[in-house]
Amino acid sequence: MTHAIRIQREARTGHLALALHLASLGLPVLPLRAGKGPFGNCRTCADNACGGRPNMKTPGPCVCPRPCHAWAAATADPAVLTSSAWATTWRDAGVVGYHPGGAGVTVVDLDDADAVAWARATLPPTRTVATTRGEHWIYSGTMRSVNGVRAGADIKSLMSYARWLGPGTGDLADLPDVVRALAEKKTSTARLAPRSVTVPALAGGGECRHRSPAYLERGIAMAEQRITDATSGVHATVYRTFLAVLSAHGRCGCLTEAHIGRLFTAAQAKGESQRHCTDAWSNAATTLGL
């Protein structure tokens, strides 16, 4: 056995051992790819064949034994974590993730030094965990997850996942109203990217005349899956996917904010920010002359 192979095997074993330890503490965990994104749906669950939601907002009725559907796959059951259905993903995992909402906490994910400085001046002190570029501020209590609540700051709690980077330092404080207010402010003032792109609609209600509604639905589901399955070059994959969707339906008026929101959700589940999604969508529309 070469030295490199031995190191890789030890790392994989370490991921599972860490996951089992966290599960014993009550944290719902899941394997993440080296790029910190979740593993894509298996063939059985692809294109919504399982009846679950491909945008991963809810797990739906799917009971797939594999770690499908991102955050919805997180579990504290050691039997599931060590099952043969999860063996391949632990083998290929880059990091261990967890579902903050399932653990009863909210993570304020601060991406850079400016965001950290803002948090220190604005938010109540709590447990902090150092990240590659910033910090995670962890509070006791749950709320809905919202990306881009301010420059360099995302909220990860219910229906979301975060990397496990250690227990952190400091005492865990209760989730403050100021953090909840960030989500409400984002909802009331943010303008979705699709509204910034003018898509000409056809007369007669904007129905897609050259494609059936079922074709559009399949196309959106396939686009979501393409983004979810990206193992590298996520930025490029998101842009190419947006470009393909706009190329097929950008001029016929059949795209709705719900459709585009599904694509944004899939991209954000892979670690893309709201700003990156907005830029990619706008760039794709500009390329096509929309």
How would you state the average pLDDT, rounded? 80
Total count of helical runs of at least 4 residues: 9
Order of helices and strands: HEHHEEHEEEEEEHHHHH
Portion in beta strands:
5-15%
Distance, first to last CA: 56 Å
The main pleated sheet reads as:
6 strands, mixed
What value does the Rg take, in angstroms? 20 Å
Q: What is the number of E strands?
A: 9
> Helix content range of the residues, please?
40-55%
Shape, per Cα inertia axes: globular
Low-pLDDT residue intervals, each spanning 5 or more residues: 1-11, 53-60, 189-206
Your description of this structure?
The chain has 290 residues and is α+β, with helices and mostly antiparallel strands. The protein contains nine helices and nine strands. It has helices at residues 3-24, 78-81, 84-92, 113-122, 177-189, 213-228, 234-249, 257-269, 274-287, and strands spanning 29-32, 95-98, 105-110, 127-130, 135-140, 146-150, 153-156, 162-163, 173-174. Strands 3, 4, 5, 6, 7 and 9 form a six-stranded mixed sheet that branches. Strands 1-2-8 form a three-stranded antiparallel sheet, covered by helices on one side. It is globular and about 55 Å long. It starts with a helix and ends with a helix.
